[in-house]
Write a structure and sequence with these properties.
With 265 residues, the protein is mostly helical. The protein has ten helices and no strands. The chain is globular. It starts with a helix and ends in a 10-residue tail after the last helix.
Length: 265
């Protein structure tokens, strides 16, 4: 077994041990000792019951898998559009001083605005349908992808850029052969931050006027004062976020095989 495999196995064991310890503390504090009031924080058996209920009977206009698939669709669409626009824009700003001078003032004006501040305007423009939620997710994921792509280009060593110019590399060849490979580590850092922002913003966006989605479960369960169902939705968001981050990590490992041992899990 290689050093990388041993390190990965060790992290897995430590992670599983942490989960087991947390679950044991939760069970002891709620079901055994009653140290935590079950009306404030549910017992494990209550959460299992709520999970079984939403999977079998449904809750908040749908079953759990329907809510999960709907949220995944919104995140995928908003994230894809943000990356498709943000990464090229960041590369352009990083490479061209003229483009930076033209675009950066508007970007600096929009950057400090919290993504959630766009929710009222998104509703005015697109109503309560999925379009408004995708727009808010796009705004949240757009900024990290632009900033990290821009930084990635600026971090490319000057001699490498000068050598490429001397060899006549320009246009799309410059982008494909120099800018993108040299910026990949920072680009993927931006993608991870964008993905995290997408999930955080999705839940907030779905709290308002959503018929399906994990955020709608949280909203309905809070109105019903149903702590166990709230925790089910929170765990589902965490699992979905971890799964999509893992998938992104696999893409990163294949795009940069020379850094495979250093790619975060």
């Amino acid at each position: 077994m290689s050093l990388t495999q041993r390190s990965s196995s060790r992290r897995t064991v430590v992670g599983l041990s942490t989960v087991v310890v947390v679950m044991a503390i939760w069970y002891l504090a709620t079901s055994v000792t009653g140290f935590i009031n079950p009306s404030k924080f549910p017992r494990p058996e209550e959460v299992l019951s709520a999970s079984s209920f939403i999977q079998a009977e449904g809750y908040g206009n749908g079953k759990l898998h329907q809510h999960v698939l709907h949220s995944l669709k919104l995140v995928a669409m908003g994230f894809a559009v943000a990356v498709g626009v943000g990464v090229p824009l960041g590369l352009l700003m990083g490479y061209s001083r003229r483009a930076e001078a033209l675009i950066n003032p508007a970007f600096l004006l929009l950057r400090p605005i919290p993504p959630l501040a766009w929710i009222p305007l998104a509703i005015v423009w697109l109503g309560l349908d999925d379009g408004s939620k995708i727009l808010v997710i796009f705004v949240a994921a757009f900024v990290p992808s632009v900033i990290n792509s821009y930084t990635g280009v600026r971090n490319i060593e000057t001699p490498m850029m000068e050598a490429a110019r001397m060899l006549g590399v320009k246009g799309w060849r410059m982008v494909v052969e120099v800018l993108v490979p040299g910026s990949l580590p920072m680009i993927f850092t931006g993608l991870r931050l964008s993905l995290q922002a997408s999930w955080t913003t999705l839940v907030a966006a779905e709290l308002i006027g959503a018929l399906y989605g994990l955020g709608s479960i949280l909203n309905q369960a809070s109105q019903d004062i149903y702590p166990a169902m709230i925790l089910v939705a929170m765990v589902a968001v965490g699992i979905c976020g971890a799964a999509t981050t893992w998938l992104l990590g696999q893409v990163e490992a294949r795009a940069m095989p020379w850094r495979k041992g250093r790619v975060a899990a």
